[in-house]
Design a protein that fits this description.
It is built from ten helices and 15 strands. By secondary structure, it is an alpha/beta fold. A seven-stranded parallel beta sheet has the order 6-5-4-9-12-14-15, sandwiched between helices. Strands 1-3-2 form a three-stranded antiparallel beta sheet. A hairpin with a 5-residue loop joins β10 and β11 (179-181).
Length: 250
């Protein structure tokens, strides 16, 4: 079994059952205990779980509910959203991440001949009555306060689709270009979105440099464009450009 698949099964088991021993995880995944121990070290380094004596436990997120974040840095988010909407061409398939900035992008897509795929319930509600937009809502477990769908169903759905562009949110970008999130349960969905997209556009207002987050989503080499509303600090900007990322200030 490939390592990525084992990691998915480990995280899925922890989300469903809570803390588990190495023995239990080995039985669930069908791998040796030595392999599971190595996997747990890697997943802890990525912030996706916490190792405990004899096994591992899921990491509980500390992000803020959607309604609390929606009113923060509104003008900056709108500026990013307008630029992103202008990037989209009619006939494209667009993947919109969870979060308030992606929701604002959706507001500027009304009346466009597009396919929009999302796990963002706010995006769904924004576009559900727009007959020009073909709207695809991914399945999954509903996180009501965060207006999102997550879990293995969401990840499985994403393996069945392909998007021309992904508009990806973040809680923080490290000086080395690593993209972070505050909640481990969202990370596998974001990674699946990246894998399903031809172009990855990261939406990161000034508050996201360095922002917050303990779980790694991806490195700079997996991004194509970073859109922000303020000059990126020199170290971060240099690292992004070294990785071939276009940095756009709007």
């Amino acid at each position: 079994m490939l390592a990525d698949r084992r990691h998915q099964l480990i995280l899925r088991a922890l989300r469903a059952d809570g803390p588990l021993s190495v023995v239990a995880l080995a039985e669930k995944v069908g791998a040796s205990q030595a392999t599971i121990r190595r996997d747990l070290v890697q997943l802890e380094d990525e912030g996706l779980l916490k190792r405990v004596y004899g096994g591992a436990a899921p990491v509980m997120g500390e992000d803020d509910p959607f309604a609390d974040v929606a009113g923060v840095r509104v003008e900056a988010k709108d500026a990013l959203a307008v630029w992103c909407a202008d990037l989209v061409r009619d006939g494209e398939t667009v993947l919109l991440d969870i979060g308030t900035t992606a929701h604002r992008v959706a507001r500027h897509l009304h009346g466009r001949s597009l396919t929009v795929i999302t796990s963002n319930l706010a995006v769904y509600e924004e576009l559900q009555d727009d007959k020009d937009v073909q709207l695809i809502l991914l399945g999954g477990v509903v996180r009501r306060d965060y207006r999102s769908l997550v879990g293995f169903l969401t990840e499985d759905n994403l393996r069945q689709v392909h998007a021309d562009r992904l508009f990806l949110g973040t809680s923080g970008v490290r000086p080395d270009g690593q993209v972070l999130d505050t909640t481990a349960v969202e990370v596998p969905v974001k990674r699946a979105m990246i894998a399903a997209s031809a172009q990855v556009v990261l939406l990161a207002d000034a508050g996201k440099f360095p922002g917050t987050g303990m779980a790694r989503v991806c490195g700079p080499e997996e991004l194509d464009v970073v859109v922000t509303n303020a000059p990126v600090d020199e170290k971060t900007g240099s690292r992004l450009r070294e990785a071939g990322v276009e940095v756009v200030e709007v």
